[in-house]
Amino acid sequence: MVTVRDVARESGVSISTVSRALAEPERVAPETRDRVVAVANRLGYRPNRAASGLRAGRTGALGLVVPDLENPYFASVTKGVQARARQTGHAVFVVDAGEDPALETELVTGLRSQTDGLVLCSPRAAEADLDAARDAPVVLVNLRHDGIPSVSSDDAHGVLLAVEHLRALGHRRVAYVGGPDRSWSDARRRGGLDVARERYPDVETITVGSFRPRVEGGRAAADLVVASGATAVLAYNDLVALGLVARLRERGVDVPRDLSVVGFDDTFVATLASPPLTTVRTDLARLGARAVDRLVAALGTRRGAVDDGSPDPATSPDDVLPVELMVRDSTTLAPTR
């Protein structure tokens, strides 16, 4: 294994000069720096980033806190975070809070001392706990709070796209199956419903209630959707939509002939459903990648990040990623009643 001592001997300089030439090249004369870099490349020497980070007060690691890794939404965001972190030379500690706000707060406290910064994905913690997290650089995903940098998707516009699609198919009574009461994303989607009501007064939109963001939540809401007399339903996420379809099938309600169903997020389960779900799509991997870009920019070490055409994360306001409607087989013309 090639060491810094080997590079120093071959270059004819001290070990400290090698370290400066590779870590702080501006502090070394150009001729010496070029000679050290050439020798390091020829010998195949790779600096120990972890040790360098410790000397600089950095761990070289980022922390990611998610509410539920079993949810494909958070699994997809996590993959985006990990991929971009690798490109910027960082490791990632991923922890699952299990939808428990108290545990989430405990995990955040523990990660602050082990990482350079944190990505909090759809955090459930109270506002006071989010303020306490400011001790370390923090980026929020799908939440905005008092000046903390954030990345989110345009949920309100996604709802409007779904209602426009259903209206074009002749649906005039559309139900919305909401998510958890404290969900920031759910509040934004309900805001999108308000915009749809103003823009399309001929479409009646009904909020059915608040449910768990899982298959069980959709099953619990299905009977209420049928009782509402709606001919179409927009679900809080794809898992809720799957639960709706399963329970409707048990009741003999055909999707989409009797009731059209629209999901949200376009996770991998949307195309595995029967029928495949029409759903509002966000590029979840990009969502995670943008969170890392903002965090690394805040750390002042934005190395090797891939330019995806987005604004500079060091100077841009909170990022809102666009959405699009993916039309599949779970929606069709409104039934004739």
Any chance you could write out the topology, listing elements then pairs?
Elements (H helix, E strand, L loop, with lengths): L3 H8 L3 H9 L6 H14 L5 H7 L5 E6 L5 H16 L3 E6 L4 H12 L4 E5 L5 H6 L5 E4 L8 E4 L1 H14 L4 E6 L5 H16 L4 E7 L4 H14 L3 E4 L2 H13 L9 E6 L3 H4 L5 E4 L2 H16 L19 E3 L2 E3 L11
Parallel strand pairs: 1-2, 1-3, 3-4, 4-5, 5-11, 6-7, 6-8, 8-9, 9-10
Antiparallel strand pairs: 10-12
Helix pairs in contact: 1-2, 1-3, 5-13, 8-9, 10-11
Q: Count every beta strand, where a strand is a DSSP E run of 2 or more residues.
A: 12
CATH topology of the largest domain: Rossmann fold
Q: What's the end-to-end separation, in Å?
A: 77 Å
Number of domains: 3
Low-pLDDT runs of 5+ residues are 301-308, 311-315
- Mean pLDDT score, rounded? 87
What is the helix fraction of residues, given as a range?
40-55%
Question: How many H/I helical runs?
Answer: 13
CATH superfamily of the largest domain: Response regulator
Quick synopsis:
With 337 residues, the protein is of the alpha/beta class.
Supply the key terms.
337 residues; alpha/beta; 434 Repressor (Amino-terminal Domain); Rossmann fold; 3 domains; six-stranded parallel beta sheet; six-stranded mixed beta sheet; 12 strands; DNA-binding transcription factor activity; HTH_LacI
Question: Can you give a write-up of this model?
Answer:
- By secondary structure, the chain is of the alpha/beta class.
- It has 3 domains: 4-47, 434 Repressor (Amino-terminal Domain) (Orthogonal Bundle), CATH 1.10.260; 61-152 and 285-320, Response regulator (Rossmann fold); 155-282, Response regulator (Rossmann fold), CATH 3.40.50.2300.
- Helix content is 44%, strand content 17%.
- The chain is built from 13 helices and 12 strands.
- The protein has helices at 4-11, 15-23, 30-43, 49-55, 72-87, 101-112, 127-132, 155-168, 184-199, 215-228, 238-250, 269-272, 284-299; strands at 61-66, 91-96, 117-121, 138-141, 150-153, 173-178, 204-210, 232-235, 260-265, 278-281, 319-321, 324-326.
- The strands form 2 sheets. It has a 6-stranded parallel beta sheet with strand order 2-1-3-4-5-11, sandwiched between helices. Strands 7-6-8-9-10-12 form a 6-stranded mixed beta sheet, sandwiched between helices.
- Helix 11 links the parallel strand 8 (232-235) and strand 9.
- The longest helix has 16 residues, at 72-87.
- It is elongated.
- It comes from Cellulosimicrobium cellulans.
- InterPro entries: HTH_LacI (IPR000843), LacI/GalR-like_sensor (IPR046335), Lambda_DNA-bd_dom_sf (IPR010982), Peripla_BP_I (IPR028082).
- This is LacI family transcriptional regulator.
- It holds the Pfam family Peripla_BP_3.
- Residues 2-56 form the HTH lacI-type domain.
